[in-house]
Amino acid sequence: MGPGPKKHAEREYIKYFSQEECPLHYNPKKYAQLVRESPPKLGIEAYQSISRSVQITQPSQWYSRLINFNESMAAWSVMCWVLDLGDRHCENILVKVNNFTIHHIDFEYIFLRQNLGVPEIVPFRLTPNLVHALGLFGPWGRFLNIFEKVLRIFENNSDVLYEVLRSIEWSLFLLTRESMSHQAKYKMRAKGIENRLKLKEWGSKLNPRVAALTLIDSATSLDNLSRMFPGWSPVL
Q: CB within 8 A of 121, min separation 6: which ones?
């Protein structure tokens, strides 16, 4: 038997979009075609796996896990954006089978999303597979509401959170032994953290609802996803 549709889509994507070409040469229409050729399976396969593992027998049991997935995905998405966390490929996002919450691992590129060889254009990972797993309303239902609430909590506590995150960023600056002449980079990253916490990254302050809509729209944009490095598996 030949390769399945997912492998075929991945192979075709890499053929048309090599590391040397991106992000200068991209094709949103081709990306959309490859997404259609690789139907989302995360939601279906995960729910089936959960059903086998914890013996789900009632619709309410399944629904509670769907809510867990939406809420944990929304909270982690905000954190990934605020922390400027890069390298969010498929192997760095785990799903806990018994309750279907997600957990991120590998924080090597914390505060450094734009320092990757191919900068990540989207604010956090919300590819077609993840959108499909969110359920009927996709990112515009429970996910959006929790996303907005987390943004509001971060904004209301921005001064305290900024001091904590700035300390972590400074520690990483010292641990990586960057030249003191690179302090301008540290200051720029620290300012970026402050702007994201206070929802001022766009030049002017946005209310949490508008900021949530703006960020989700950017994360799911076919134009943005079509620019991503193939190893990030943006088709999935």
A: 23, 224, 227, 228
Contact indicator for 115, 108 with CB cutoff of 8 Å:
no
The Cα 80–Cα 87 span in angstroms is 10
Tens of pLDDT along the chain (236 residues) come to 344 444 444 444 344 334 444 443 467 888 888 888 877 766 666 666 666 667 777 888 888 989 999 999 999 999 999 999 988 888 899 988 788 899 999 988 888 765 677 778 899 999 998 998 898 899 999 999 999 999 999 999 999 999 999 888 878 777 666 555 567 777 888 899 999 999 999 988 999 999 999 999 999 999 899 888 878 888 88
In terms of CATH architecture, what is 5-232? Orthogonal Bundle (1.10)
For the chain, which residues make up each domain, given as ranges? Answer: 5-232
- The three-state secondary structure class of 90 is helix
- Residue 205: CB partners within 8 Å, gap ≥ 6? 198, 199
pTM above 0.85, yes or no: no
